[in-house]
Amino acid sequence: MRNPLSPTKSLRARLGDLLLSVLAIGGAICMVLVVVALTMNVSIMMFRTGSMEPTISAGSIAFVREIPATDIAEGDIVTVDRGEDILPVTHRVTEISNTDSDSGAVTFTMRGDANETPDPAPYTAQTVRRVLFSVPGVAPVIQWFQNPLVLGGLTIGASALVVWAFWPRANEAPKRQRGAHSAQTIALPVMLALAAPLLASQTTTTDIYGDYLRLRSSGDTEKMTNMAPGDSATWVVDVWVDAPEPGEVELELTATGQLAEQPGALTTEIILCSPHRTEITECAEDSVVPQQIDTSHLAAENDEYSLGTMSSEETRRVLVTATLADPPPDSIQETTAAFQFIATGEDEQLSVTPDPEKPDVSPVPTEADSEDGLASTGLSLQLWIIVVAAMLITVGVIVMSVRARKHQPDVDSELS
Questions:
Q1: What is the topology classification, in CATH, of domain 41-139?
Q2: What is the pTM of this model?
Q3: pLDDT, greater one: 108 or 290
Q4: Beta strands 123-125 and 232-241: pairing type?
Q5: What average pLDDT score do residues 339-350 get?
Q6: Which residue from 15, 121, 147, 226 has the highest number of Cβ atoms inside 10 Å of its Cβ?
């Protein structure tokens, strides 16, 4: 016969089952929401600031649905895309000035509810995303959960919860112990595998080689091109030389674009150092030489801003950290900034930008982007929801599997 569980252990087991069941149900709900979003063209926008207050407050999320631009009306709150590298705008439609029936393109004017003046220029679009409703205070929570460290901690925590809930007890039969161990071996690797896409680093690295000069550019391009007021982004360039004779290499930096030229809009910190032995974006501890300047001074240089020289027998790491002012000046709406690093020596010159695939000026989101409150979520947020949902459903499957084993009769006991 089986020994009955003590009241304390029975309560603990029931609480564990209840918690895991709730998580599994939550995962199923998340998956349903993702399916609805994909089939009905519904997505989520997150608002960082309050240009739409009091209708939509800072820190809210809004559910938006894609519609033809010909369906909008004055008074609608819509999201308009402004290009691949520029964050969209979510404001209220104040005037519809033109509709092209052939192409379906509509030209209209928008204004944030908290703004005194309309947006600087009309918008023309064939499709927009109309705001269905908003939920205040949720955006910071979603951003917190999207942090890879947080997601990794939750993954490990959920796995530990499964192991704790179904770890074989001293009074359980050996058969049940084998089932418990099976559940444990499934939980951790499956959950970690599901979390892997979101835990992966977003840093991209590009190598550029001349005859002798070598450059390696590293950085999070997505982060560098989607900055909000107060945000910082770091670009890392390694420089070394493979030449038969020693010499000197001159290092220079340029900044261009109206955003870079505007005093007080963008601050740049430059660090020249010896590279860390293992970390590709850090310096050796004893070799940091920081320089902090207003980017407008960098852009005001006649040619390039000199970072000094280095010997061809050493390796130098340059960290360029740009920080967008909070709040930024009003005059930087619709402006851009771009950096370029230049190394000259050994009778050649190499240059690189933060995004080597787009060497021209790359847009940096400005006051308009942040004030319009936006970080485009789209597929990335849906992927996050899918991963979390899959994790929760995995927990639910394990719960049901272990419950089924618990309720199976002990054949050996019944025969005896």
A1: Umud Fragment, subunit A (2.10.109)
A2: 0.48
A3: 108
A4: unpaired
A5: 90
A6: 226
